[in-house]
Design a protein that fits this description.
There is one protein chain. This protein has 305 residues and is of the alpha/beta class. It has a single domain, classed as Spore Coat Polysaccharide Biosynthesis Protein SpsA, Chain A, CATH 3.90.550.10. Helices cover 36% and strands 15% of the residues. It has eleven helices and ten strands. It has an eight-stranded mixed β-sheet with strand order 3-2-1-4-8-6-9-7, with helices on both faces. Helix 1 packs parallel to helix 2. It is globular. The termini are far apart.
C-alpha cells in the first residue's frame, strides 16, 4: 500500500499502558512502512514526573516503524491542548493522519483498515472522520462498516481539508444549536453529549473532541465506524487521571483483514438504533458514567467535576 498515513501517538505518564499500545501497533503489518510521531507531555507536578520519565525512556527505544519522531514537551500542555496542537501540525504537513492515545490496543489490521478508509473516502465530501472503535453492539444485519453522525475518538483518522474547519469556540458553538439540533446531537436518547459543551463553557472541563463532533454535526458530515471494533481501551483500570475501573465498552477486537467498504453515503439507521438501544437500556446512573467516560472516548478528555 502506497502513501500511508502517519500515526500520531499521544503519551503521558503510564509506561505499562504505553508499552501495550506500542506492541500491539507493531504487530500491524503496515507498521514497518509507517511514520510514527509521538507527543510526550511533560509532568504537571512532581508526583507524576517519575512515570513521565519512564514513558520517555521507553519511547526512546522503540523501533520497527519506518521513521520515528518524538516530541517531548518542556511544559505540561494538558491532553486537549496537546492533541489540538499535534494533530493540526501533523495533518497540515501530511494531509492525513491516524491518531492514537496511550491506552489503546489495536487489531493487527487496524492500520490496514484506517489507510484503506482514508483512501476510499478522501474525495467523499460527506465523510469527515474515520473511527477505529465502536460500541459493543450486536453486529447482526450490519455490513463491515457503517456511516452515522457520531464521532468516536478511540483510534481515529482525518484529512487536512476536513480538520481545517475545527474550531474550539464554545460561545459560537452553543449559539449555532437549536433545540432540535441538541436532540439529534444527543442521538435522540438524551445521551447528554451537549452537556459537555456547557461544561466547557463553565470551565468545569477543558476538552477538544466535543468541538470536533460539533463541527462535523453542523456541517452535516458523517463518520465511518467498523461494526466490530478494531480498538480496545485498556485505560479503564483506574490508572489514568480521567479513567476508572469499568468494562462496559469492552468487546472483541476485529480480525477482519478484508473490509467491505460501503459506497452508499447515508446514515445507517440500523446501526444508529442499535447504539440508541444500548444506551437507553442502561440505568440512569450508568448514563452518567457513560457521559463522564465519553469525555475520554468519543467526546473529550476530562470528566465532569
Amino acid at each position: 500500500m502506497k502513501n500511508l498515513s502517519p500515526i500520531v501517538l499521544f503519551v503521558y505518564n503510564r509506561p505499562w499502558h504505553t508499552q501495550q499500545t506500542i506492541e500491539a501497533l507493531q504487530k500491524n503489518e503496515l507498521a514497518i512502512e509507517s511514520d510514527l510521531i509521538i507527543y510526550s507531555d511533560e509532568a504537571k507536578n512532581e508526583n507524576e514526573q517519575e512515570n513521565v520519565n519512564k514513558v520517555r525512556l521507553y519511547i526512546d527505544q522503540i523501533d520497527n516503524f519506518k521513521k520515528i519522531t518524538i516530541v517531548k514537551r518542556d511544559k505540561n500542555w494538558g491532553l486537549a491542548n496537546n492533541i489540538i496542537d499535534g494533530v493540526t501540525k501533523i495533518v497540515n504537513e501530511y494531509g492525513k493522519i491516524i491518531v492514537l492515545e496511550d491506552d489503546l490496543i489495536t487489531s493487527p489490521y487496524f492500520l490496514k483498515y484506517m489507510n484503506e478508509a482514508l483512501e476510499i473516502y478522501k474525495d467523499e465530501e460527506k465523510v469527515w472522520h474515520i473511527s477505529g472503535w465502536n460500541y459493543p453492539i450486536d453486529s447482526d444485519n450490519l455490513r463491515d462498516v457503517f456511516l452515522w453522525r457520531l464521532m468516536n475518538c478511540w483510534g481515529w483518522a482525518i484529512w487536512k481539508d476536513r480538520w481545517k474547519y475545527f474550531e474550539k469556540d464554545v460561545h459560537k458553538t452553543i449559539s449555532e444549536f437549536n433545540k432540535e439540533d441538541i436532540k439529534r446531537f444527543n442521538l435522540d436518547v438524551n445521551a447528554e453529549f451537549f452537556l459537555q459543551i456547557i461544561a466547557n463553557k463553565e470551565k468545569k472541563v477543558n476538552t477538544w473532541s466535543i468541538f470536533w463532533y460539533a463541527t462535523i454535526f453542523k456541517k452535516n458530515g458523517l463518520c465511518l465506524s467498523p461494526s466490530q471494533t478494531f480498538v480496545q481501551n485498556i485505560g479503564h483500570d483506574g490508572s489514568g487521571v480521567h479513567s476508572d475501573v469499568n468494562d462496559i465498552f469492552v468487546s472483541k477486537i476485529s480480525l477482519n483483514k478484508d473490509i467491505d467498504f460501503i459506497l452508499n453515503i447515508d446514515e445507517n439507521k440500523i446501526a444508529l438504533e442499535k447504539v440508541q438501544n444500548f444506551l437507553a437500556s442502561q440505568k440512569k446512573s450508568f448514563l452518567v458514567r457513560v457521559f463522564n467516560k465519553l469525555a475520554r472516548t468519543i467526546i473529550g478528555n476530562d470528566t465532569i467535576k
